[in-house]
Amino acid sequence: MSRRTTLALSAAAVTALAVAAASLSWTIAAPRAAAFAERDLARRYGLGLAVAGPATLTLLPAPRLTFAGVRLSRGGHDLVASDGLQVQLGLAGLLAGRAEITGLVLERARIALPSGAGDWAEPAARLAGRVAAGKGRHLRRLVLVDATVTGRDPRTGTPETVTGLNLVANWPRPTAGLELSAAFTWRGVAATLALSGLRPRELAAGVETPVVVALTWNGARAGADPLAATDSIAADSRVAEGSAEIEGSLVWAGETAKETARETAKETSAGAGPRLSGQGRFVTAALPGTLAWLGIAPGPAVLAGPVSLDGRFLARPGAVEWPEIRVRVGDNRLEGAGAAVLAGGRLGLTGTLAAERIDLSGLIPEAMPEGAWSRAPLALDGFTGGDLDLRLSAASARLGPLEAQDVAAGLLVRDGTVEATLGRATVQGGTVKGRAALAALPSGLDARLQGSADRVDLGGLFADLGWPRWILGRAQASVALDGAGSSPADLVRRLAGRAVATVEGGEILGVNLADLAQRPDSAATALRRGGRTHFERARVSLTVSDGIAEIGQGQLRGASLAASLGGRIFLSERRLGAEARIEPGPDGRAGGSFAVEGPWLRPSLRPLAARTVLPTALPAAASAYAP
């Protein structure tokens, strides 16, 4: 073997040994290593470093110091306590004998976030200032492994904890974008976050920067069986599940990023803070559960099932505006504009939306058993936890079995009150308008209803509602009712107000009043035997008091027939107790009186004996003794 070959092999062996040695972790004096790294942390961020465990040094593939039992502090207050800390160092600085920290890896860290700016204000201000000015080397990589973050909700002051936080943030060059991914559990819900495109230098300098954000959350508890979690979500709409995606631009409002960082505690009151705009999409399978997870009172959202929002937006602290938005609630698709404001944990929504077709059947309570009003307690707590001002229009709409066209409606929700307005709607060829208001009382609800209808086809309306089609014609009506109660049964029992209805050019199905006047004994079978009574005009007025409607004026006029109706409608029992009188005809046709009684949708007829007409010679006082 030649001398040159021997030297080459020796050099290769030495190099291999050096590389192997540099790749190994060498135990070093922890206090001196900690002081070496602390100098850079103190100079850049004003942070102190204390190490309780051993320290090791590894040179390849990149220089790094590894510590055990670490605390990062500011002003004598611990901000971070970690089982392990890896400090990645710049090679050039290391060769020059100084620490230049390029990356941090914290294992099982416990990070404390004060409710105000507190001890984090100075590190944040220094970081923002250095990033904005582009001075010195920056932190290229931050990794958290199984970290726990504790703090307080700035709105309510309640303690909050994020567990199982695994985060990786990369910022390779000052001119490059920041890439971040994280997975964590908050309030028992597992979530993931991905961020890209953000340019920290522009953001710190108060210049607009692009950003792409994706957040997902799933109500399946950490460690739970996925199939069981899916079943639980399907069975319980309160469980949070959904995603949010944003692609737009971000700017930090304020005079300078450094001053903004120092005034962190005053951001909300001073109007400073982030401004985010662009295109966004929000999807959740259970809106009430998602809002509850975020600590927001759901309010009218309890009515909603799966919900998605998609459109252009502008967000600032505590508020979001959508100049253009597409909304999907269940199978309903709407477009328009809207805004949301969050104050003190209470969500306020405003919107103007339009749809080609919308189904509002979910707003109707379950049908009650025939002949009975529900005695379940009435409350608005589930509907008035937030504020809502919604204007809605639709070419066609369905409310349970009822179909309407050209609908313009509104829903207004405030603390303790719900008001629904129907500006107009076409129902069975006629126009319907109305307003219903509910207000919470200590003992239940106060309810008020006003409405009107014009030229509505009664036959078609009754068919849609599933009622017996016993009357046909075009109806005009108005109603004004109010009441208060702790349950639907209690509210109906206390109902008061007035109602008037007129039907033009119609007919009564199931009975011929002219024949009935001639044969009163057939009243028991008249409704079952069938027949028709044509009329030109029918009118009835009701005065309601304590749940009983008094028939003040009931008239029916036809070409050769006249009849009147009087009596009462017992709303609590859904029962009629009335008397119909058929006037004698000009052609000598006999008249008659009949009791109309029983369930209000299926009454029965019973002939009444003719009243005795007293002789006019008897004194008035004697009428009480007449046979």
Describe the model.
It is built from 13 helices and 30 strands. By secondary structure, the chain is of the alpha+beta class. The chain has a domain at about 495-610. The chain has a 30-stranded mixed sheet that branches. The model is unreliable at about 15-25, about 220-240, about 255-270 and about 610-625 (pLDDT under 50).
Topology:
Blueprint: H1 3-23, E1 26-28, H2 30-45, E2 48-51, E3 55-58, E4 64-74, E5 77-89, H3 91-95, E6 101-112, H4 121-133, E7 141-152, E8 159-170, E9 178-186, E10 189-198, H5 200-204, E11 209-218, H6 226-235, E12 241-253, H7 257-262, H8 267-270, E13 273-284, H9 287-293, E14 307-316, E15 319-329, E16 332-343, E17 346-359, E18 387-399, E19 402-414, E20 417-427, E21 430-441, E22 444-457, H10 458-465, E23 471-485, H11 488-493, E24 496-509, H12 513-518, H13 523-529, E25 532-545, E26 548-557, E27 562-570, E28 575-582, E29 592-599, E30 604-608
Parallel strand pairs: 6-7, 17-18
Antiparallel strand pairs: 1-3, 2-4, 3-4, 4-5, 5-6, 7-8, 8-9, 9-10, 10-11, 11-12, 12-13, 13-14, 14-15, 15-16, 16-17, 18-19, 19-20, 20-21, 21-22, 22-23, 23-24, 24-25, 25-26, 26-27, 27-28, 28-29, 29-30
Can you summarize this structure?
With 627 residues, this protein is of the alpha+beta class.
Largest sheet: 30 strands, mixed
The percent range for strand residues is over 45%
Mean pLDDT: 81
Overall body shape:
rod-shaped
Helix content: 10-25%
- Count of alpha and pi helical runs: 13
Class by SSE composition: alpha+beta
Total beta-strand segments: 30
Distance between the termini: 152 Å
Low-confidence stretches: 13-24, 221-238, 255-270, 612-627
Rounded radius of gyration (Å): 39 Å
